[in-house]
Amino acid sequence: MKEYLSDYKGKSILITGGAGCIGSNLTRALIEAEAARIIVLDDLSAAEKWNVPVAPGVVFVEGSILDEEVLKWVFTRKIDYVFHLAAHFANQNSVDHPETDLLVNGTGTLKVLEYAHLTGVEKFVFASSGCSVYGSQAPLPLKEDFVSLHLDTPYQITKLLGELYCNFFYNYYGLPVAIARYFNVYGPGEVPGAYRNVIPNFIYWALQGRPLPITGTGDETRDFTFVDDIVDGTLRLGVTPQAVGDAFNLASEVETKIIDIANLVNEVTGNKSGVEFVARRDWDKIIRRRASIEKAGTVLGYSPDTKVEDGIKRTHSWIIENYDNIKVSAKF
Ligand SMILES: NC(=O)c1ccc[n+]([C@@H]2O[C@H](COP(=O)([O-])OP(=O)(O)OC[C@H]3O[C@@H](n4cnc5c(N)ncnc54)[C@H](O)[C@@H]3O)[C@@H](O)[C@H]2O)c1
Fold this sequence. Notes:
By secondary structure, this protein is α/β, with parallel strands linked by helices. The longest helix is centred in the first third of the chain and has 21 residues, at 98-118. Helix 1 (21-32) links the parallel strand 1 and strand 2. 48% of the residues are buried. The strands form 4 sheets. It has a 7-stranded parallel β-sheet with strand order 3-2-1-4-5-6-11, with helices on both faces. Strands 7-10 form a two-stranded parallel sheet. Strands 8-13 form a two-stranded parallel sheet. 40% of the residues lie in helices and 16% in strands. The chain has helices spanning 21-32, 68-75, 91-96, 98-118, 130-133, 154-173, 198-207, 227-239, 258-269, 294-300, 308-321, 323-329, and strands at residues 12-16, 37-42, 58-62, 81-84, 123-129, 177-182, 185-186, 212-215, 221-222, 225-226, 246-250, 256-257, 275-278. Nicotinamide-adenine-dinucleotide is lined by residues 16-17, 19-23, 41-47, 64-66, 85-89, 104, 108, 127, 129, 131, 159, 182, 184-185, 197.
């Protein structure tokens, strides 16, 4: 076990959005770290109960971060660490449902921050999005000191809004906040669906023998980051005093073309149907994406090591193992 994890031993932890992809893996890591109690608060609007790890000390609360009664119950359990992951996810979903996006990612984040402040938590970690706050014009590699005010979707706007609220609570109330800027996270725990990420969806379609739809030319790149690396960076953020009041890219620092992802998925799944090209989504203006993780490396000791080939194989195995549940849960 990594040494820094011992800081979580015996602690009481709240993970909002903990039934989702990142949250379920974070829960598992905190069980291994011997946290005394892990409260998973999720309204299951975009996740499944079967995805929540079951273990002594894990308390699943089905409820919304917008519900005062639920928040009062949760925060009177004496929480040490908050990992605020609950969000209305992601770009297309926010274009289709901009008001829900603002409500959950804006008001919801404000409410969780308020309760964290009122009950004096030790640390508040916010899941922001590097794919959002840098916009489409920032120079590569993307570094923490450049954020854009010209964003392309309501989701990108409300992830930046969440960061601004975090900074307010840090500057005005002294709440110990640390911000993680994730990049294209993938891995076990993400159920495919209309508003989900490209890798689980490609695997799901490939398993059905369908051609993989490339929205654009396929030469577009993203900084795909395996969920275990994201969990490691997030947990480091929670226990590093120098991270307080600051934001950190958590990425792989490797640029991968979408066409290469599609070919890899077809190879791993044995899908012979190839790819098909469809129109790029009109809000999708980002051609290339690669983050700098220099700051997270220096301050947090973050050093991701999962190659995309291995990450895709592990995601594929998880989808196969859970296929019966996934077939029922995947919403397209
Ligand atoms: N996955 C990525 O590529 C990525 C990239 C950047 C940032 N992020 C951020 O990381 C966090 C976790 O992402 P994820 O990939 O695990 O997404 P996810 O959709 O799997 O997890 C979010 C969870 O929040 C829950 N939720 C939604 N509204 C809620 C509400 N009102 N109350 C309680 N729970 C609610 C959903 O049911 C879901 O389980 C999110 O904040 C997301 O914006 C993710």
